[in-house]
């Protein structure tokens, strides 16, 4: 019930289909291979870890490799250490926000440093208690980059009675897609949500933003003592109580202890990625709620005033009544804008809903654009499709436990337990069934 409340808070409150929901367990904490994500490149190729080790590379030549990560831990920090480059130099897509396996394209436009390579580049493998990191060579052009993701998801413990409905529900997703909500993890799961901090930054309430950041973990066993001290503006005591590794919080508290302004402390302590994460959470929240309202209050087909993206103009534009009559567009063609600080929300069917969310979170006037240490036009895309339709969608039913879908590293290391094939979809109608799904999300 607590999870449902968190989902409802960020707008995850409706579905495209009105049929019966299928419930299973995503147990990637125990079985990391139950959730796998692979980059899809511009060419349409799905990126795989096909070998271990990156080979040699000229220090002045752009460097590309496939990066495999299984488990927890900070991927960027690990990579930066092994490649001997600053973390900011890495060109990576978004991290997988829950336990699982990811295979990503890593690019270093300026190449590797002119230093002796570490063993990880040669062996291609680094393992510890928290994670397994592997690097592999890839033949790519210099402009190679990820444009989409391919997911493999295993749901365990599917109810046998629900399994009878699986084919219809999967075909419905294949044909109509699903609501393109921003996922729950993007809003943060701490006591203070990302959009609460983002709202303070959006409106220029710098002191409030500092307080929220420093006191966001008062229930955490490790951070609770420091957070309590910060809540009383005792920065010196809070710094003494902070556990090691909290570089951002330590920098923020130290700048405030040195009597720097709250805005200056934030600029000095938060990275551009931090600013983008917090401000983006406000925009994403407004988008989610507007999307839910659009789908719940209007027919599930284009209406005059809905937005579509005009490829020729490179801009979104409203759907006309004539186009609705001619049925020129489908629900999957609709987009909603993503609001930005200090900019009016573009006209669309969801504009009033977005403005209401922004007024609720940021009743004051927005902060001036020059006060943000990043280009606001690069914060998020202008628009986001209302519905996502997965490409290359397939599924299967299997019986039993253990690894259902092997990962790239298990194929390169046969010592890992192989996948046990279950019966066919027609035969697998017993308790303990698993639902396996794969598809590319474009």
In short:
The chain is α+β, with helices and mostly antiparallel strands and 442 residues long. The protein has a domain at 23-177 and 393-442: Pseudouridine synthase. Helix content is 31%, strand content 19%.
Query: What amount of the residues lies in strands?
Result: 15-25%
Query: Main beta sheet: strand number and arrangement?
Result: 8 strands, mixed
Shape summary? globular
CATH class assignment of the domain at 23-177 and 393-442:
Alpha Beta
Helix fraction?
A: 25-40%
The Rg value, from CA coordinates, equals 24 Å
Number of helices: 15
Helix/strand-derived category reads: alpha+beta
Spans of at least 5 consecutive residues whose pLDDT stays below 50 are 416-437
Mean pLDDT: 83
Order of helices and strands: HEEHEHEEEHHEHHHHHHHEEHEHEEEHE
If classified by CATH, what would the architecture of the domain at 23-177 and 393-442 be? 2-Layer Sandwich
Can you list the strand order of the major beta sheet? Answer: 4-5-2-3-1-6-14-13
Distance between the termini: 31 Å
Number of strands: 14
CATH fold-level label of the domain at 23-177 and 393-442: Pseudouridine synthase
Protein name: TRUD domain-containing protein
InterPro entries: PsdUridine_synth_cat_dom_sf (IPR020103), PsdUridine_synth_TruD (IPR001656), PsdUridine_synth_TruD_insert (IPR011760), TruD_catalytic (IPR042214)
Pfam families: TruD (PF01142)
Biased composition (Basic and acidic residues): 427-436
Supply database-style keywords:
four-stranded antiparallel β-sheet, Pseudouridine synthase, eight-stranded mixed β-sheet, globular, alpha+beta, 31% helix
């Amino acid at each position: 019930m607590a999870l449902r409340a968190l989902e409802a808070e960020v707008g995850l409150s409706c579905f495209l289909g009105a049929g019966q929901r299928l419930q299973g367990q995503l147990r990637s904490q125990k079985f990391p291979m139950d959730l796998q994500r692979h980059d899809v490149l511009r060419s349409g190729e799905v990126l795989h870890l096909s070998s271990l080790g990156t080979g040699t590379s000229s220090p002045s030549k752009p460097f590309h490799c496939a990066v495999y990560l299984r488990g927890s831990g900070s991927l960027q920090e690990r990579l930066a250490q092994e490649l001997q480059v600053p973390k900011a130099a890495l060109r990576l897509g978004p991290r997988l926000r829950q336990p699982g396996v990811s295979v990503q394209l890593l690019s270093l436009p300026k190449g590797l440093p002119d230093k002796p390579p570490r063993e990880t580049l040669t062996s291609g493998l680094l393992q510890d208690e928290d994670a397994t990191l592997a690097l592999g060579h890839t033949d790519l052009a210099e402009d190679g980059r990820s444009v989409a993701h391919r997911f493999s998801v295993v749901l365990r413990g599917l109810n046998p009675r629900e399994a009878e409905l699986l084919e219809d529900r999967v075909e419905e997703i294949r044909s109509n897609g699903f609501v393109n909500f921003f996922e729950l993890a993007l809003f943060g799961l701490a006591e203070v949500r990302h959009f609460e901090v983002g709202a303070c930054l959006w409106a220029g309430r710098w002191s409030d933003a500092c307080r929220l950041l420093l006191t966001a973990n008062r229930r955490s066993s490790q951070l609770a003592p420091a957070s309590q001290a910060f809540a009383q503006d005792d920065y010196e005591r809070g710094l003494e109580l902070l556990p090691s590794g909290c570089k951002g919080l330590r920098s923020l508290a130290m700048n405030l202890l040195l009597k720097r302004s709250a805005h200056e402390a934030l600029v000095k302590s938060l990275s551009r990625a931090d600013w983008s994460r917090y401000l983006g959470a406000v925009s994403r929240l407004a988008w989610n709620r507007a999307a839910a309202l659009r789908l719940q209050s209007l027919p599930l087909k284009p209406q005059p005033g809905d937005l579509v993206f005009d490829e020729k103009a490179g801009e979104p534009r409203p759907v006309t009544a004539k186009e609705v009559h001619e049925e020129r567009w489908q629900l999957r063609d609709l987009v909603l804008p993503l609001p930005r600080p200090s900019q009016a929300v573009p006209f669309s069917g969801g504009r009033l809903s977005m403005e209401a969310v922004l007024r609720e979170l940021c009743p004051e006037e927005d902060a001036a654009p020059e006060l943000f240490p990043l280009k606001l036009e690069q914060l998020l895309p202008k628009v986001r499709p209302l519905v996502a339709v997965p490409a290359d969608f397939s599924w299967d039913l299997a019986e039993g436990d253990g690894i259902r879908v092997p990962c790239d590293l298990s194929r390169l290391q046969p010592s890992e337990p192989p996948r046990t094939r279950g019966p066919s979809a027609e035969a697998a109608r017993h308790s303990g069934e698993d639902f396996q799904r794969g598809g590319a999300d474009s």
